[in-house]
Every structure is written in C-alpha cells, then in structure tokens.
C-alpha cells in the first residue's frame, strides 16, 4: 500500500514536472514575438495594441459592386496607447464608435501602396472599436464578375484576394502578417447566392441570403477571404470537399478526388492538420493567381482542372500552407520565403509520397529551371531581390513575389535535408511547426532556432552549407542540390530526335505526363520554324490543349515563331483566363516584337475588363508601358 502510494506520488510528481515545463515553454514570450518586429507595410499599431477578435457585419451589393457594414474590434490596450491605428485602402469611413460611443476619427491622406491610416482615440480601458465603412471602386482585393465572366454565365460572382496587403481594401484592420485575431462574420448577399469564407462554411445555400461564419483560431488579415456566387458543394471524404459553380462542380469533384488522401499524407509527414475541415473552391477563370491558402478553404484557379488530375500539386501546395504560413507565419513580407519556400518543399514531399520519387523529381527540376530564369532576370535589374531575406522597404510587397522565395527557399531546405539526413530533417520540421504554431517568425529567429535544433554540436556540417550565402547572398549557391533527371533525360532524347527531323509521330511519348510535356516544350530552341510548329501541332494538337500549363507555353512559342494558326485559340485563352502567371509571359512575348505588339495591345484592350485589378496593374505596365 505504502509502496503504491509512493509510486503514485512519484508518478504525479513526474507528470507535474512534465506539464509544468510544457506550459512554461508555451507561456514564455519568444523573442520573435511581433512586438519587437518592424513591419514596414502596415500603418496600424497592432504590434502594440492587441486586436483580439473581429466581429464583421457586412452586406454585399453585387449590382453596386460595394461591400458595406461594420467591423467591430475587441481590443486589449495593454500599453495604454491614446491613438489606435487601422489600415484602410480606398475605404469610405462613415462613423467610428469606441465602447458604444461615437467618436471623432481622422483618416490620413493615402500613401502609395499602403493606403490611409485610420486614427481612433482610445484609452487604457477601451474594450472595443467599431468602424462603419464601405469599400471603394479601387478595392484591390475585390474582383466583381458580371454573369458573362463566370463559368455558368447566369449570376454575378465576387471573390477576394487579401494577400499580401489588400485585406485593408475591404476591412479596416491591422493588416500585417505578424498580427493575428479570431473572427466571426455575418454576411448578407442576394438571396439566390451563397457566401463562403476562410472559416467554418455552409455546404448548402439558404433562403435568407444571410450567412454566419466562425473562425476561432487566430489568423493574420491576409488570410481573410470571401467568395459569393451561385456555388455548389460536393464532399470528398468526411473532412474534405470541393465547391464550384454548378456547371463546374462535377469536373471539380473528379479532379479533386485525391484531396482526402492528400491531407492524410500531409499529416503523416508533419503532424496533425489543425484546422478542422479542408475544402477548396474552384473559382471562375478570372482568379488572378493559381491558388490561395485561405484557412479551411483554399481558393483555386479553374486552370488546374485539366481532366486528368495532373495539376494537383497546386492543391498540395495550398494544403501545405496549413502548416507553413497559416500555422507558422512569416513575420513580415521580407521573410516571405519562410511561407513559400517551406511550402514548396512540403508540396513536393506530399507529391513524392503520393506519386513516387520520379514524379516529384520532375517538379523539383522544373522548379530549378524557374530558379535559374528568375536569377538571370533579377541579376540584371535588382540583384538583391535574389536574396532569400528580402528588403521591401518603400516598395510594393508584391515586388517580392518572384520565384526566389519559392525555389531558392525550397532548394535551401532540400540542401538541409540532404545534409542532415531525411529523418532528422523531418523531425526538425515537425518540431518547428509545433513550436511556432499560431506564431510569427522572422528569418533571423528561424536561423537561431535551426542552430540549436538542427546543428547543435555540429559546426562542421553547418559550415559546409554556407547558410549566410543562401539567405543573405545573391544568385544560386554552388552547393544547390539537383535531383535525378531519369524521366527528363528520356524527354531530352526525344526532343533531340525531333530537332534532327524525326517526324513527331515517331517519337516515343507514351505515358508522358503534363510535366514531361512541359519539359519537352520548355527546352526547345528559342524559335522554332513555322513548319516545325505545324508538325508538332498536327500530331499533338497543342493549340487545342485542355491543359492550361501546356497551352500557355505553346502560345508563347507560337508568338515567338509567328505560328499564326494558334492565334485564334490563344485569343480565346486570353479572353477568359486571368491567372497572372500565364498572362504576364504571354503578353510579354507579344510585346517583344512590333509585329505581335499590335495584336497584344488589341487583345489586351478587349479583355482587360475580365482581369483582376492586380493583374490589370501589372499588365498595364507590360502592354501599355504605363
Ligand atoms: N500564397 C500564394 C499566393 C500569393 C502570394 C498571393 C503572395 C499574393 C501574394 C500561394 O500559395 C501560391 O504560392 N500560389 C501559386 C501556386 C503555387 C503552386 C506555386 C500561384 O498562384 O501560382
Ligand atoms: Zn504558396
């Protein structure tokens, strides 16, 4: 009996020590906390005042193309600031209330890229601030589609894109990635439409047109998201599913079939998926990017619906952000590689697990090619943009949106993996995601953490990696890893045959996937002759490809070669697709020579209205030279 008691006492002592240490670790303020970090892209003081929770109550006017309502912030003014500042961009502020009393506010004049700071007088005891507002015509986050611009062409559609600093154009908020809050929302939309957010979502539309949302895990403003349209849902398994316009939903469901297994695979790699459900919505074609990792609900371009599930690595990427980015978040946009480099690495690990190594090796190699291109281009314009740690002070944070954070970042992690061994590296990453869950991290804090968690007592190994050169140095370091070229080597030899005049019909292309075709086309000499283009097209029908990645690349080659037969299809492609990654190089190619520039301008003037405001901004520069 006594012995049992002693054991029991000893056991509870152990438990006490254990949990005691555990909770201590959690409570201790880490040095990377947002308080000490300067984010040059927010005018708010969310680093000093705690913005705990947002209650959003908005009405979406699809005809007037305007969102209006109020944002009610629950705050903790622990540092007794007198002035609370929120980010806004092109918002009309109607009134501001502090703890239920109307107050006089001040709206600064706008600063380029950043918008206007909204100043609200507060006291140490202030508990809430409510802002009544409406969005303006230049809301950069919002794309309003007329029925004609949707897939089904029956109802209007609205979606948001808040990353990097556009949340402020539809919600007055502390808009920095280092500032997290929970939210509830009430969104009123026309009765025939349904609303979805980065929160717990409905699976059916209701008759009232009023939708309520809860996001009870703290997220930064760039992950605030809303989509409104005539939307249907299909389940994949008990925690995954897909939304799309009704006419698109069956295709989407087919393409996304593997997504349930994808979440399982991701969990096997780096630990539990912490966001409850994982759903995705396939948006109308004007969506300006490939995918956006809005928590619980990835937003995706319809250009990944290839009919053969061959472009699903993009969903693996957005899913991976549920760990790298949404759970552990870059503290500022200068640390963007911590979001995207980690996610690219994680994406390829998921694909390796699901599709095999020779498949993920192709993704790595295409990524490496993108890295080389990006470094070549940026070395001419702004060499420092090839560092992993960026310097975006005074600039548009989207200037940092190049292949560098993605590809140099993921290759750096790959090098770490090879150097310390996969098991050790996986253990490290898993621990990293747990340690920094729901926190933000700077490049510097990551390097410190890595020092102890990965390289403790192993200075020799560490020095071989040359971390400084990777993070604070230009170009591609010499020790950049390169994968096996097994499948692409075969592609290379078929391409060589073609270039030596073997008829396309005699090439061995059986079992090629999208990625082999991409490599086949990418590595063609700069300009093929019209005859060569025609021969390829006759056999492989590239001009009519249903695969957006292949089609885009083919059209670029067609413009280069003056292969006019592809132009009508190209125009059709440009009339609908709004994905910047496709539009920019294609218009860019057209603008390179006077013959095709005229066509480029004409097509652009016709279809500009179909593109997202952000795509318009970058394309105006390319096509109108604005
Ligand atoms: N988070 C990014 C998209 C983003 C980054 C939007 C910065 C605005 C500013 C997303 O996860 C992403 O990387 N999308 C890629 C696809 C991916 C497979 C590389 C895209 O849209 O092309
Ligand atoms: Zn990403």
Would you give an account of this structure?
By secondary structure, the chain is an alpha+beta fold. It is 40% helix and 19% strand. The chain has a seven-stranded mixed β-sheet, with no helix packed on it. Strand 18 (291-292) and strand 19 (297-300) form a beta hairpin. The longest helix has 26 residues, at 2-27. It is globular. Ligand BES is lined by residues 163-164, 289-293, 314, 317-318, 321, 340, 401, 406, 581.
Strand and helix map with partners:
Layout lengths: L1 H26 L22 E12 L4 E11 L6 E6 L3 E7 L2 E3 L2 E2 L8 E6 L6 E7 L7 E4 L11 E4 L19 E9 L5 E4 L12 E11 L5 E4 L1 E7 L2 E6 L3 H7 L3 H12 L7 E5 L8 E2 L4 E4 L12 H8 L7 E3 L5 H20 L1 H25 L21 H18 L1 H14 L3 E3 L1 H13 L3 H7 L1 H6 L13 H14 L14 H9 L7 H11 L7 H14 L5 H10 L3 H11 L3 H14 L5 H11 L3
Parallel strand pairs: 1-11, 16-17, 17-19, 20-21
Antiparallel strand pairs: 1-2, 2-8, 3-7, 4-5, 4-8, 6-7, 9-10, 10-14, 11-13, 12-14, 15-16, 18-19
Helix pairs in contact: 3-4, 3-5, 4-5, 5-6, 5-7, 6-7, 7-8, 8-9, 12-13, 13-15, 15-17, 16-18, 17-19
The structure holds ligand BES and zinc ion.
């Amino acid at each position: 009996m006594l012995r049992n008691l002693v054991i029991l006492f000893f056991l509870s002592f152990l438990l006490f020590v254990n949990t005691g240490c555990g909770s201590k670790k959690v409570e201790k303020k880490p040095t990377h906390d947002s308080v000490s970090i300067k984010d040059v892209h927010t005018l708010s003081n969310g680093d000093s005042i705690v913005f705990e929770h947002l209650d959003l109550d908005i009405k979406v006017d699809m005809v007037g193309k305007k969102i209006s309502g109020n944002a009610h912030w629950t705050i903790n003014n622990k540092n007794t600031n007198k002035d609370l500042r929120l980010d806004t961009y092109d918002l009309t502020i109607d009134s501001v209330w502090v703890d239920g009393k109307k107050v006089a506010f001040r709206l600064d004049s706008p600063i380029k890229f950043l918008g206007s700071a909204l100043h609200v007088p507060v006291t140490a005891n202030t508990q809430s601030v409510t802002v009544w507002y409406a969005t303006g015509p230049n809301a950069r986050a919002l794309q309003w589609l007329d029925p004609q611009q949707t897939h089904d062409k029956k109802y209007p559609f609205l979606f948001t894109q808040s990353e990097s600093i556009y949340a402020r154009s539809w919600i007055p908020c502390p808009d920095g990635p280092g500032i997290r809050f929970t939210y509830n929302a009430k969104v009123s939309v026309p009765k025939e439409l349904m609303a979805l957010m980065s929160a717990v979502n409905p699976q059916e539309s209701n008759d009232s047109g009023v939708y309520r949302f809860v996001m009870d895990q703290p997220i930064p403003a760039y992950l605030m998201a809303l989509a409104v349209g005539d939307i249907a849902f299909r389940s994949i398994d008990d925690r995954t599913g897909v939304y799309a316009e009704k006419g698109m939903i069956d295709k989407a469901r087919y393409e996304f079939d593997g997504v349930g297994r994808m979440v399982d695979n991701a969990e096997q790699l780096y630990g539990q998926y912490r966001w409850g459900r994982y759903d995705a919505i396939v948006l109308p074609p004007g969506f300006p990017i490939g995918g956006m990792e809005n928590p619980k609900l990835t937003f995706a371009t319809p250009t990944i619906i290839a009919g053969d599930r061959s472009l699903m690595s993009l969903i693996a990427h957005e899913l991976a952000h549920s760990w790298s980015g949404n759970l552990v978040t870059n503290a500022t946009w200068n640390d963007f590689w911590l979001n995207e480099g980690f996610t690219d690495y994680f994406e390829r690990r998921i694909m390796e697990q699901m599709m095999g190594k020779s498949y993920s090796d192709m993704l790595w190699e295409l990524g490496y090619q993108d890295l080389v291109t990006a470094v070549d281009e940026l070395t001419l314009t702004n060499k420092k943009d090839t560092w992993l740690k960026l310097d975006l002070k005074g600039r548009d944070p989207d200037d940092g949106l190049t292949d560098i954070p993605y590809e140099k970042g993921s290759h750096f992690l790959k090098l770490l993996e090879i150097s310390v061994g996969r098991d050790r590296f996986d253990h490290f990453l898993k621990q990293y995601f747990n340690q920094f869950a729901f926190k933000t991290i700077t490049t510097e804090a990551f390097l410190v953490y890595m020092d102890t968690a990965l390289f403790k007592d192993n200075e020799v190994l560490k020095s071989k990696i040359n971390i400084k050169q990777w993070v604070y140095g230009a170009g591609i370091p010499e020790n950049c890893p390169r994968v096996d070229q097994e499948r692409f080597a075969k592609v290379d030899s078929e391409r060589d045959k073609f270039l030596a005049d073997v008829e396309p019909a005699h090439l061995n292309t059986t079992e090629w996937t999208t990625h082999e075709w991409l490599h086949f086309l990418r590595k063609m000499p700069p300009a093929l002759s019209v005859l060569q283009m025609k021969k390829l097209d006759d056999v492989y029908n590239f001009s009519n490809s249903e695969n957006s990645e292949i089609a885009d690349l083919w059209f670029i080659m067609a413009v280069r070669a003056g292969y006019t037969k592809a132009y009508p299809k190209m125009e059709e492609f440009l009339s609908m697709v709004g994905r910047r990654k496709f539009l920019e190089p294609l218009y860019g190619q057209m603008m390179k020579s006077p013959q095709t520039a005229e066509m480029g301008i004409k097509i652009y003037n016709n279809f500009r209205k179909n593109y997202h405001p952000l795509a318009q901004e970058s394309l105006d520069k390319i096509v109108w030279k604005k």
